[in-house]
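Weekly modeling sync, notes
Attendees: S.R. (lead), two postdocs, one rotation student

Agenda item 3: backlog of single-chain predictions. S.R. asked that every request posted to the team notebook include the full sequence so nobody has to chase files. The rotation student volunteered to paste the first one in as an example of the format we agreed on. Action items at the bottom.

Example entry:
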Amino acid sequence: MSTRQRKNSSLSRLAVPAICSLLIAYFLFHAWSGRYGIVAMQEMEEERTRLEFELVRVKEKRAALEARVTLLRDGTIEKDMLDEQARHMLGLVGPDEIVILR
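Predicted structure, as returned to the notebook:
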């Protein structure tokens, strides 16, 4: 019975470390620039900050609109508010008034 022995080449010794290095490089690349990587997380954080500022702006606008609605909703309508709304809806202007269009 004969046994066959091979000479260990230098390539076979480097095969496992090379494959492991490639796997580590692959995972590091995707950890940096992947869909949920470091770069994407920074972009999501910037988007979150922008949306928070927009939310504050929308809440302020809503509060202002709610204040105007409460002026119309009480049992008594203020004459100034009624006059403003009527002029706006009907497009009426008095003879001694100046119109500034926005």
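Discussion: group reviewed the output briefly. The CA atoms of residues 31 and 37 lie 5 Å apart.
Action items: rotation student to repeat for the remaining queue; S.R. to check formatting next week.
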